[in-house]
Design goal:
- The chain is of the alpha+beta class.
- It has 2 domains: about 270 residues, Beta-Lactamase (2-Layer Sandwich), CATH 3.30.450.150; about 300 residues, Beta-Lactamase, CATH 3.30.450.150.
- It has a 5-stranded antiparallel β-sheet.
- The longest helix has 19 residues.
- This is Haem-degrading.
- It holds the Pfam family HbpS-like.
- It comes from Pontixanthobacter aestiaquae.
- Keywords: Signal.
Length: about 650
């Protein structure tokens, strides 16, 4: 039986994830209706990157996209909810067809060989509007001018084995394992819907369910430029695809695919033209030949088929035009020379000209003898951006494109000391890079155990229980008290349902679920337990039952400044390192937007180069890095990892093993 929002189980039904369907791994090359990629715009003199063209969706185009999706839903007899967003997550409209299910159930997929309920958050009911919005945001946020990812792509890269299939048990977890718990409704970075007026379109906006991986979410492109996303909720199920080897007939995906006709990504950048560790990613199991004749008249369906609906916290029930990414109104724009010296840098803005996160000194003098200075913060961000700009991208087309990502820097209290982006970095990397920076600073902090032990048990989620689990697992009574420096790769090792990652056995990581057979992408352990109640509160708000969740995630005790150290949740895939002054922790740097090894390198090497440039700051001393921790398990020993840098990563230099010995 499906569970209702009123119970704690429906909690994070919201948590986004999922997909049903596999495919032949790129062998069905999309007919997605995409157009050839436009010729790359050359960068301006003195620059390495070109700015994305200022494209946006008009009201008429939103209506056309909706009409096309509605027509396909009618042809398939599947009344659905359709959501369209712009690139920075503004909801441009939500259409509820007559007869569409009001609620969508988190996947009933069999987990751990049993159908017994409850398992994690499986089976919870969430509003269908929130499912559709999460899918649309996911398509928009994961995509860029160099890659187009769908919610089916997301399903492939977040599960416990990559690629997910019955025959791949024993392989490592997905490269973006845990990314589903980003863009959270409690995030202090992602903006909230204001209902209109000044600043209404400032992004990036939050998602009601984090990132989704249920098929039926695609990015929307206009003249080769990503301008938004579409999401469909119609079959009442919001799950995840455990078998990438077959090809699904998925009605929600077909409806979304109809919606993006005329607005599909260039074929050359679709996910199934991109490989990760030798595996082709997936974009869609449906093709244009599967679709019915397109319905393009919104007037013909608006009313007879249903209508536009308001969604509390996301939309006022009126179709809006999108905002052009890169403009002041979008909340992300090119930096000024005073904000950041690199001409290619982009920053987050408040819509009135002021940067939201200007470079500044550390705020943690109450905890650190010598906090980061503004000059040191600037050096770290500039040097990391310089490494990023020279690096070969992993997930972008054409081949040998430059890496594009976001870099975030925090102090030991988790306060932001600066955020900088490359022009076309995927939007999801903004929130994720901050999660990564905060996670590295948190788990390397002397107060990490104290913070977790001081977190109240809410709705049955006992965060404090993870401290003794870690200490027993590592055979270290002082674990999580600052004796070791943890990068996100290190904490990610401890967060996998199988330890070591990929070896199927009886032992889960101590930050994962206690029984690896009951792992679900909807409940992964500490990462989800920290924010599950926030999501439940937010779902109640969407339904008008209670006030919204706080504008910062988790219920860990406040730091000395009165704010949470992990105010947008934690992240558990690589791309961050803590910042040290000698043996003293002074902050954390996080990078997100491209391959995880590239993200690791930019954080690690950027920090090293900043220390060489300005002195006084560095990576953690080698003797206290988490890769010095050896875990005795099953008669053998396993060493944790710290960072993993790509081989020969630079476009302008044949150097190899660039992180070796640092």
């Amino acid at each position: 039986m499906a569970r209702k929002i009123g119970t704690y189980w429906c909690l994070a039904g919201a948590l986004a994830l999922a997909a049903c369907g596999g495919g032949d791994s790129g062998q069905n090359a999309p007919p997605t209706g995409g157009t050839p990629a436009p010729s790359p715009t050359p960068p301006a003199q003195g620059r390495l990157f070109a700015d994305p063209a200022a494209e946006f969706l008009s009201v008429g185009e939103v209506q056309q996209i909706m009409a096309q999706a509605i027509g396909e839903a009618q042809a398939r007899g599947l009344p659905s909810t359709i959501a369209v967003t712009d690139r920075v997550g503004n909801v441009l409209g939500v259409f509820a067809m007559t007869g569409a299910p009001a609620v969508t159930t988190l996947s009933s997929e069999t987990i751990g060989g049993t159908t017994t309920m409850p398992i994690g958050l499986q089976g919870a009911d969430v509003p269908s509007t929130t499912a559709a919005i999460a899918k649309a945001i996911t398509g928009a946020y994961l995509s860029s001018g160099g890659n187009a990812f769908s919610t089916r792509t997301a399903s492939q890269i977040v599960q416990e084995h990559f690629p997910p299939a019955p025959t791949t048990v024993g392989l490592e977890s997905g490269p973006l394992f845990g990314v589903q718990f980003s863009q959270l409704p409690c995030s202090d970075l992602n903006a909230r819907f204001t209902g209109g007026g000044a600043g209404a379109f400032i992004g990036p906006k939050r998602s009601p369910l984090g990132l989704a991986a249920d098929p039926g979410g695609f990015p929307i492109y206009k003249n080769g430029v990503v301008v938004g996303g579409i999401g469909i909720a119609g079959d009442g199920d919001y799950g995840f695809d455990t078998n990438i080897l077959d090809r699904d007939v998925d009605d929600e995906e077909a409806i979304a695919l109809a919606g993006i006709q005329g607005f599909a990504p260039p074929v050359e950048i679709a996910a199934d033209r991109i490989t990760v560790d030798g595996t082709s990613l997936r974009f869609t199991d449906m093709t244009v030949s599967d679709l019915s004749p397109l319905q393009t008249s919104f007037g013909a369906v608006n009313g007879p088929a249903g209508g536009i609906v308001a969604v509390t916290g996301y939309s006022n029930g009126v179709i809006q035009q999108g905002v052009a990414y890169g403009t002041e109104a979008s909340g992300i724009r090119p930096s000024t020379a005073a904000e950041f010296t690199n001409q290619d840098a982009y920053v987050l803005t408040n819509g009135a000209g002021a940067g939201r996160f200007p470079i500044r000194a550390g705020t943690d003098a109450a905890s650190v003898a010598q906090p980061l200075s503004a000059a040191e913060s600037r050096a770290i961000l500039e040097e990391a951006f310089a490494v990023l700009s020279r690096s070969r991208a992993q997930i972008r087309r054409p081949l040998d494109s430059r890496m594009q990502a976001t870099v975030s820097l925090v102090d030991t209290h988790g306060q932001v000391l600066g955020i900088v982006r490359s022009p076309d970095g995927p939007i999801f990397g903004t929130d994720v890079s901050l999660q990564k920076a905060r996670t590295a600073a948190f788990f390397s902090n002397a107060v990490a155990a104290q913070q977790l032990l001081g977190t109240p048990v809410l709705a049955g989620f006992d965060v404090s229980a993870y401290v003794p689990r870690v200490r027993n697992f590592l055979n270290d009574a002082n674990a999580l008290t600052g004796t070791f420096a943890f990068a996100d790769r290190s904490g990610g090792n401890l967060s996998r349902p199988y330890f070591p990652d990929g070896e199927v056995g009886p032992t889960p990581g101590p930050l994962s679920v206690e029984n690896p057979n009951t792992f679900s992408p909807f409940a992964v352990g500490l990462q989800s337990d920290l924010i599950a109640v926030n999501i439940v509160q937010h779902l109640g708000f969407v339904q008008g039952a209670n006030p919204d969740t706080a504008n910062e995630c988790t219920f860990v005790p406040n730091g000395p400044g009165g704010r949470k150290r992990i105010a947008n949740g934690i992240q558990i895939f690589p791309g961050s390192v803590p910042v040290y002054r000698g043996n003293q922790l002074v902050g954390g740097i996080g990078v997100s937007g491209d391959g995880i090894d590239q993200d690791d390198m930019v954080s690690f090497l950027g920090l090293h180069n900043a220390g060489q440039r300005i002195g006084g700051i560095s990576n953690a001393p080698a003797a206290i890095r988490a890769d010095r921790i050896v875990v005795n398990i099953n008669g053998g020993s396993v060493r944790l990892r710290y960072v993993n840098c790509p081989f020969a990563p630079f476009l302008d230099d044949p150097a190899q093993n660039v992180c070796e010995g640092l």
